[in-house]
From TrEMBL:
Protein family membership: Belongs to the vitamin uptake transporter (VUT/ECF) (TC 2.A.88) family. Q precursor transporter subfamily.
Keywords attached to this entry: Cell membrane, Membrane, Transmembrane, Transmembrane helix, Transport
Name the UniProt record assigns to this protein: Probable queuosine precursor transporter
NCBIfam families xref list: queuosine precursor transporter
Amino acid sequence: MPSLQNNATTPETGATAGAAAAPQAGPRFADVGSRYYGILLASMAVIVILSNIGASKGVLFGPIVTDGGFFLFPFAYILGDVISEIYGFKMARKAIFTTFALSIFASLSYWVIIALPGFTDDYGVAKQHALVDALGPVPQIVLASLLAFLAGQTINSLIMVRLKARQGERKLWMRLMGSSGVGEFIDTLIFCTIAAPVIGIVGFGMFANYVLVGFLYKVGVQYLLVPVTTLAIGWFKRHEPTYAV
């Protein structure tokens, strides 16, 4: 008969401790051997890349100033929260770095596509101009997103894991709301500062509108979806084979 083992893991490594079964004082995290981590990482990368493309377009809703990636980007943070809660800080950091390595690769691919010689008829020239207008600003958007998401999501994940070290499995809603507020503010401020000139946002009033609306929207979506995020995290905890419940 196989012996029972404690699958508790440390927040820094996510590695299985392998100690004898006993009440767990510290936070629990899953190993990344199952398919779920890869699915979450791939979903985060796709959302961030699409957000970077959408962010090159300025969007107006009456007096509200935002960009075309506004409806997607909060979900990248939600996925970051799920990864941090289930797999720990080291695996969340790996997901962040992987996502932005892929974002840089996508940006370089756009540059090659634009640089390739196209058809010289009117349709070809019009299409080339459309590609330049749509994808040309993306490298600076990627830079803004890289620095902003790297800082904001790292702090977001670190707060999640540190609070979990104190709270264990309790007060998940507090971890989700507290980490999201701090992480999204840092992310929004850095991103808007770098991306605003590319999008066409000029003047302090328009910039302040962009930052404030972006921050309130992102945090509002995440807070509104806290019950859904909580249910999703619960599902992963039950179905992730190495998560000790």
